[in-house]
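Changelog-adjacent note: as of this version, every example in the card shows the full chain rather than a window. The one below runs 193 residues end to end.
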Amino acid sequence: RGISVKPIEICQHLGQGHIDAYYDELSGKEVRAVLKAGGCNVNVPATAYTQAARRRAWRKRFDAEFEGGNDNLALALLLEWLMRHHRQMLIDYLDFLEVKHTGGETDDDFCVTRTPEQLRAGVAELLKKYPPAHVGTYLLLVGHLQDTPVYDETPEVLAALGIDAATAAAYIEKHKATYKPKMRPQQPVAAAS
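Full-length structure tokens:
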């Protein structure tokens, strides 16, 4: 069954250069949080006295897990990178959509409360202001977390991630044909009187 792009797939489409850049923005504490969330050991050899040595040990562990397809690690990397270093992009998107939030965090299921047209208009606004790879990363992650097909079926979002037009078109057609939303609790419907 079709589902939204998984975090590990977002990372694979981004390519090693972007993953390296995202990883390098993280502090030592943030790298540890990513590794822990990915189920990885964060202990380092006793000989790793310096921050640089610890970061090298963690990076080897990260690379091995990443290459093994650890989706939880990829999710943690993307969330940590977004929330700690690119929060303004989240704020700008939610402000554009007129979603109530606190510093870019919201409980509003805005992919349900806003129309696909509104969500896509926000894509265009973000692309005017932020690097395309950052926009693609954020929105495909939102699609994954909120279980919406909108971003997976928006050519500009896929192109922002570096997916060529022909591959994106084929992906969108397949996605439309196979996407099945996860079961969400339904809102109670008032009985007709």
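Structural remarks: Confidence is low (pLDDT under 50) at residues 186-193.
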